[in-house]
Amino acid sequence: MVPALSKAAGSVVMQAAGAEGELLAHLVKGHGDYLQGVMRHEGELRHVLARVCTGANGNTWLAVNTVSDTGALTLIGHGSAVNAVKNGEAPRDTFAFQLKGKDAPKFAVPLISPGKIPPALHSKLGFDKPWTPPKAPEPEQAPRAQVKPANQPQPM
Questions:
Q1: Please, where are the H alpha helices in the chain?
Q2: Cα–Cα distance between 28 and 46 in angstroms, integer?
Q3: Residue 77 CB-density burial (10 A; 0-12 exposed, 13-18 middle, 19+ buried)
């Protein structure tokens, strides 16, 4: 079955680089319930196709598959929207990925422009609340100087 066409196809959804500046992930919106791009797996960048999956319990995740030269897919890991963080409110703009392989670390991949992602796609990716821009800290108001009334000249 051919996936449904998507107006957002080709737009960058998420991207991350490692501490040394090496690309870890670059995913763009594909047609239907897919993201496609590249991810670093076992030290090499690999072409990937990630499908949005929903379990019977309603949980949503991305199943990440490598794409071979012949077009064969091999499951290499999964990713989930970060909806909760310890000691705070999750900004609903990051994915956590876990790939298969020896000593494969979990890694976070932020959405590129969460405010530009259509709300339906944001929700479909598994975020439980809409993204809201971070609140700018309110500027501190300088204390006002207390002015004493001027001495009024007294009539003589």
A1: 119-124
A2: 14
A3: buried
**Could you tell me the two tokens for 44?**
């090499």
Residue 51 in any domain: the answer is yes
Domain count, the chain: 1
Range of the domain at 92: 12-124
Residue 130 within any structural domain of the chain: no
The answer to whether position 146 is within a domain reads no
The length of the chain, given as a count of residues: 156
Identify any residues that bridge with 60 across adjacent strands, giving them in sequence order: 54
Among candidate residues 143, 144, 114, 94, the one with its CA nearest the CA of residue 12: 114
* String of DSSP letters for 23-66: EEEEEEE-SSSEEEEEEEETTEEEEEEEEEEE-TTS-EEEEEEE
pLDDT at 155: 62
Across all residues in the chain, what is the average pLDDT? 86
Q: Residue 87 is encoded by which pair of tokens?
A: 């000691």
Classify residue 67: in a domain, yes or no: yes
12: how many CB neighbours lie within 10 A of its CB?
Answer: 15
Confidence of residue 88 (pLDDT cuts 50, 70, 90): confident
Render pLDDT for 6-61 as a digit per residue (tens, 0 to 9): 777 778 999 999 889 999 999 999 988 999 999 999 989 999 999 999 999 989 99
CA distance 129 to 38: 27
